[in-house]
Design brief:
Chain lengths: 367, 367
Amino acid sequence: MVDRRRITPVILSGGSGTRLWPLSRSSTPKQFLRLTDKRTMFQLTVERARDPGRFAGPIVVANAAHADLVEDQLAEIGVRPEAIILEPVGRNTAPAIAVAALAADPAALLLVMPSDHVITDPEAFREAIEALVPFVEDGWLATFGIEADAPHTGYGYIRRGRRLAPGVNAVDRFVEKPDHKTAIQYLHEGGYSWNGGIFLFSAGYYLDALERSDPAILAAARQSMDGRLEEGVRVFPNPRAFAAAPSNSIDYAVMERADRVAVAPVAMGWSDVGSWDALHELADTDENGNAIEGEVRAFDVNNSLIRSEGPVVAAIGISNLILIATDDAVLVMPRGQSQHVKRAIEALKGENHATLDSFSRRVVTSA
Amino acid sequence: MVDRRRITPVILSGGSGTRLWPLSRSSTPKQFLRLTDKRTMFQLTVERARDPGRFAGPIVVANAAHADLVEDQLAEIGVRPEAIILEPVGRNTAPAIAVAALAADPAALLLVMPSDHVITDPEAFREAIEALVPFVEDGWLATFGIEADAPHTGYGYIRRGRRLAPGVNAVDRFVEKPDHKTAIQYLHEGGYSWNGGIFLFSAGYYLDALERSDPAILAAARQSMDGRLEEGVRVFPNPRAFAAAPSNSIDYAVMERADRVAVAPVAMGWSDVGSWDALHELADTDENGNAIEGEVRAFDVNNSLIRSEGPVVAAIGISNLILIATDDAVLVMPRGQSQHVKRAIEALKGENHATLDSFSRRVVTSA
């Protein structure tokens, strides 16, 4: 079903984060937004592994609620997927990758990518892929190590072990999201990379490793795919069987327990765009340090991120501010505070606020 | 036509300011907004001179475009006006007051009030009115002197002359809006009040004084009222005749040139609410110094003015900010900068931006 010589991208699109509220909503999470480019983050992820000389069509694993979005956004960039596997419920990454691996040829190499990350240096990414290929063909499970250049407490860390080849190390160990003190220690010590959640391995070796480390996940995934429904490229695993899979990440369920795990430490301009601050850092800014999108009129504005998806925004005399406006919601905060967006989100969740789910569709007529 | 013993309020509602954009628009200027109270500033002005033992029904002079607004807002508070005189074009205050004076009995005392000012101590205002009554019955023209407690350059100043009675002085002279240095000098010198644009005089004496100082205005006003059309309480001066009146303020055309002009210096919590900063100063603030209206969720927010007329606003970790959100426009600036709103307004005027004229009417449906 999948070309043996080519790498099959497996694009994980299960996320429904609201950290970029009010733009991201459960109906249109971050990966489907045009945040850093005219293309959405999902589309950019697909484009990153599109070279037909090297990559097969992607297998997308997505929330069933986003089936149309996935299909439309693929069509918009002219990409025909191998399959769009639609999860009835989210069970984290280990089961999601398992159903993708079951849909692929056991010998196929799978490049697993979250759909909501940015990589500004795709060439470096491609080089890291090529450095890893001989190992994953030999049965190693591989991950990509993001250069840890700050004591970030939001990522898992990978301690690099012995060098296997240029640009490839064995993984010494995975460590969980550290506290700030530990993160500073890792940075000081050196030899650590962030775990960016991007993986390369053959479908068969992944399934073998999963069978050894978390067989209940494999059994549920297999049963759900045996009972699948197919409609064109859309694949619906049996919902009851899929829902029976333990919810676990590939890191915990497989990578941390497998024997031969390699890491390619790579500086590729990676970002998970996990906050509005991160987006401001990624954005092309004007001569005043502003990243401005939409109908915005700025006067004496510096180092600010201002986006409007609807209303005209007039900003006067402000610095270091983040302001995001949509037709039904406005977020305002200083730069450096965007980790606190979750407080607003939690409050709105407590009220079942409509702006978390979807955009109001408004018919605008002049009064 | 007007009860001789009672004072007739003349409410000037010609303004179409946009300094409180995006709430104030040319279709709904400041006086028709609910800024400081559940009632609009126009309604508060009417209520201020409503005591039937002392006041007759008001004569309202308004822009013809606002006829329905005026009538609706009067009906909402159950006030029946003597007349609503609808100007076809704005010609400043001298002609507006002239048509009101012509509609009134010559012996009627007119209390002329802009409709977009706030007076937080109406009792002090009432006392100042009573102190002036004997003088205006005797033919004086009177004005109310606002306590000048800052070197404001946006108001005209009145230099007080000799004391005529408790709470009443002769006016020594009117002086135009000063520069900052001169304003500081006035404050230091003492003896000055701000000219708040509120006046008391008999209709006949005003018309007499106007005839002496600017007869062209009186002639045009008289001709426009002779050729008026009446529809219920609505009075339409002849548009061509009215438009022929020179555009001039009562200050320049009459008060500065009249012989017997009195001032009642009064501390009555007056504000012309000329900016968002002024509104924040007037507003009831919560324990964090915030004035918040509408669907706003604030976290670690201090000393800020946040109003929403539509979208939900989430504000996180901000201080001293002004944010005004409507369905089609958002204004954001630090406190103390609201004099710069005009820069945004000028830019939007240059584009004939729809948000200056009227609100978009939106039909909201869940997507």
